[in-house]
Amino acid sequence: MLTEPCNTSAVVSFYGAVSQPLRCVWSFYSTSAAVEPSSPSVKTAVPGPKSNALKRDLDSIQNTELVRFFVDYARSAGNYIMDVDGNVMLDLMTQIASIPVGYNHPRILKALMDPANLSTFANRPALGMHPPAQFGSDLSNTLVTVAPPGIDQVMTMACGACSVENALKAAFMAYRRRERGGNPPSQEEIQTSLKNSPPGCPKLSALSFNNAFHGRTMGALALTHTKWVHKLDFPSPNWPIASFPYLKYPLEDYVNENKAEEAKCLAEVTHLHLLCLTAKTLALRLVNISR
Fold first, then answer.
1. Which one of 63, 164, 187, 252 is separated from 42 by 20 to 30 angstroms, measured CA to CA?
2. 173: how many CB neighbours lie within 10 A of its CB?
3. E-strand spans in the chain?
4. Within this chain, do residues 235 and 203 fall inside the same structural domain, yes or no?
5. 115-123 vs 106-113: helix crossing angle, rounded to 10
6. Rounded to an integer, what distance in angstroms lies between the CA atom of residue 89 and that of residue 279?
7. Residue 112, CA atoms < 13 Å, CB-side half-sphere
8. What's the CA gap between 236 and 231, in Å, rounded?
9. Does 5 share its domain with 110?
10. Interior/surface letters 209-218, b for 16+ CB within 10 angstroms, e for the rest
11. What pLDDT is attached to residue 250?
């Protein structure tokens, strides 16, 4: 647990009266469980004057082109986000779908307050090499309980793009290990891998689909085909891209048209698959509908 005394005057200004000096960690978490508003409330233009002033300040040290408004996270709650100008808005973006349980969820705050978790938060373990003692039981009691049937191995990742990057690595590794028939890599493979050359860096590919979004790191970006602004000026491997069925709705009114669309796309995938098999380059297929 943190032991430095907290400057309670700063806490009071945001969260109301505090009757005695508190430890920093408790003063933040014990007072930040905001109550979810009953409806939106807009008091200024969005962005408001405070957001605009903060954006001007931030613009002096980084690109702020995508900044919409600045947020008062301490006062945001549940499905509602509050900006620094006091505007309350129903949030359908949820930080790019990263907080599906809403703002300042009591159980999230409780987990952050738990002294048993503080050493993990403070020390940022390299989990692959030096996990904390409870890491195995934590995984067994969380991710393993919701894993699909037949999946008994789990790995934590920092974000969605990281997950895609590691999925690519795992697929390529499995493909090459099968090709080696259980034998270790050759010295030629080891040496050429450091020079970005085959056979160490094989000419394999992943099949993705038009309008897919998998992330914006370099590997995931090679599988992403939504907005040009995500991809312009970045080198990318020449991996195959197939059409994904664009169905008409309601489905019951367009049965024949949708069957034809699906058949066309499947034929395209089959064609690309055969081309890659001929060249021995296709290692995996990825499907993700654009958000």
1. 63
2. 11
3. 80-82, 88-90, 205-209, 241-242, 282-285
4. yes
5. 80
6. 53
7. 15
8. 9
9. yes
10. beebbbbeee
11. 97
Joined together, the tokens standing for residue 128 give 């692959």
Task: Tell me what pLDDT residue 29 has.
Answer: 44
What domain range includes position 24? 1-33+106-123
Q: Is the pLDDT of residue 291 over 70?
A: no
The pTM score is: 0.76
Residue 187 sits in the same domain as residue 85:
no
Residues 81 and 113 in one domain: no
Burial of 291 (0-12, 13-18, 19+ CB in 10 A): exposed
Answer yes or no: is 150 within a domain.
no
- With respect to residue 63, please indicate whether it lies within any of the assigned structural domains: yes
Closest CA relative to residue 39, chosen from 84, 101, 87: 87
Instruction: Give how many domains the chain has, as a whole number.
Output: 3
CB 24 within 8 A of CB 4: yes
Tell me how far apart the alpha carbons of residues 132 and 156 are, in angstroms, rounded to a whole number. Answer: 14
Exposed e or buried b per residue across 90-109, where buried means at least 16 C-beta atoms within 10 angstroms of its C-beta: ebeeeeeeebeebbbeeeee
The answer to whether residue 139 sits within a structural domain is no
Q: Which of 283, 267, 179, 271 is nearest to 223 (CA)?
A: 283
Identity of the residue numbered 161: A
Report residue 99 as tokens. 């907080």
Give the torsion sign (CA, 84, 90, 94, 96). negative
pLDDT of residue 19: 34
Structure tokens, 65? 């082109």
Q: State the CB neighbour count (10 A cutoff) for residue 206.
A: 23
Note whether 113 and 67 are same-domain residues. no
